[in-house]
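Customer escalation, tier 2.

The customer says the design service returned an amino acid string that "doesn't look like it belongs to this structure." They asked us to rerun it and document both sides in this ticket. The original structure tokens are below, unchanged.
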């Protein structure tokens, strides 16, 4: 947690969003939820976390390098903010799904 607290607020936010997906995630989905006009911000902050050993990249997928790191990122978010973040994630994911996919 201490290492993550040294990240700038946007970097912390991106790790918090990523942690809401679980131990693995993709940058494009984090970008949708992060909702910044600076599309390179997510990749820039994920690259910093990779260099610090917090995140591992495998192809287009990312994962926290250890469950304790994932839990630390998740714990940076207040419970009320987590609920809001999970709701935003669900809404963003639903926007990308057709009604027929929902029914099946």
């Amino acid at each position: 947690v201490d290492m993550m607290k040294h990240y700038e607020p946007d970097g912390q936010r991106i790790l918090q969003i990523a942690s809401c997906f679980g131990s693995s995630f993709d940058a494009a989905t984090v970008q949708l939820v992060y909702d910044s006009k600076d599309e390179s911000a997510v990749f820039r902050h994920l690259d910093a976390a990779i260099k610090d050993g917090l995140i591992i990249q495998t192809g287009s997928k990312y994962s926290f390098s250890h469950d304790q790191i994932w839990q630390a990122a998740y714990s940076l978010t207040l419970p009320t903010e987590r609920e809001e973040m999970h709701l935003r994630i669900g809404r963003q994911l639903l926007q990308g799904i057709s009604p027929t996919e929902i029914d099946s």
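Tier 2 assessment: The sequence is consistent with the input. The radius of gyration is 14 Å. Helices lie at 2-5, 9-20, 27-34, 40-51, 67-75, 79-95, 99-103. Sent an explanation to the customer and offered a walkthrough call.
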